[in-house]
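Need tokens for this chain, all 409 residues.
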Amino acid sequence: MAKHAVLSSGAKMWRSLVCAKSELRLDLTLACGQSFRWRETAEGHWTGVMGGRVWTLTQTDETLWYHVYTSSDRRGQVQVRDRKRRAAASLQLEQKSEKRFRGALKEEEEEEEEPVAEEEEMLRDYFQLNVKLVDLYKGWGAADPHFQRIADVFTGVRMLRQDPAECLFSFICTSNNHISRIHGMVERLCQALGAPLCQLDETSYYDFPSLSALAGDGVEARLRDLGFGYRARFLQQSAAQILDTHDVQWLDGLRSASYLLARDALRTLPGVGTKVADCVCLMSLDKTEAVPVDTHVWQIAKRDYSFAPGSGQKSITDKLHRDLGDFFRKLWGPYAGWAQSVLFCADLKKFQKLKEQGNLKRPKKKEEDDDEEKVTVARKVIKTETEENGTVKNTKTKSTRHEKPKTSV
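Here are the structure tokens for all 409 residues:
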């Protein structure tokens, strides 16, 4: 049985490209809730499905390493191609034509290089490595002191460029959900409706389902049985609507539309609200200005940026969503969605240890400082009187009769 690749076993089966950790950190980018197809299969090694292929990625300080597994179908194609090559080479030898034989070898070498070049291009596109993240961080930090504090620890958080269909249907699953549970849902969706790719260490990997598979009869009932609840209907109906009203290329075509047009088009689909539409725009449709807003992002805005609009509301309205997006777009510029993802990542519970290591604690409000000062003074008075009287019985003084200090949660 094939096993998950590990770089320490030897670099011969790996390929690489130059990419510093300041430009990409796999541990943050692949685990911050953008994609739900990746998991850590060994320390610092991430295995997942992208572009219909199974990959394992890892990195050193200046290098991104990748290994692509061959599925059973592709393995068969490779074997057929190899047999043809051997037959062609044998024929050339029999004919003793030096010139033609060299031409065959050259053609074989070029064919060998094609998959390698294609895979590297897929990886560059997926991580959008043409965008210089270090330069963006500098600009955001210059405009926003709070971001600069976060950026010193959370470097290399990069926006993925996912397949639009996979991104859309994955985020339909995010409604009233959390990252670990969404991971499970997306995996069950792929196991139920996607094509098998390969098996590694008893873990089977599947491609993401096609639109026709998602729109099929009986899909809703099947997904309900798998624990998708009301989301099952949205998944099936959205796929059916795209195929009935548009075509399989419609989602890809939204990459060339404006941000607002693309977002409004997505919102016509069942189960797609403003937040999900913004996630799809940002993470698959090249709309770098899209700022997905949920209660988590709203709390960050209020806590760290004293964002006041809508403070009396209990839910996020379209107006509040727009106001929050405009606030961050004005602060961070055309790549505001990328900057927001850094703060979102830094606020996730799973990364709190990293945050603590960087001494990133929320600054206290002035009233909290005043309260702590009162408590300190009161304790000093109590300690002094206790030492003088030898007892704590008669230690009430005017300075100790203060209100209970406020606490922050």
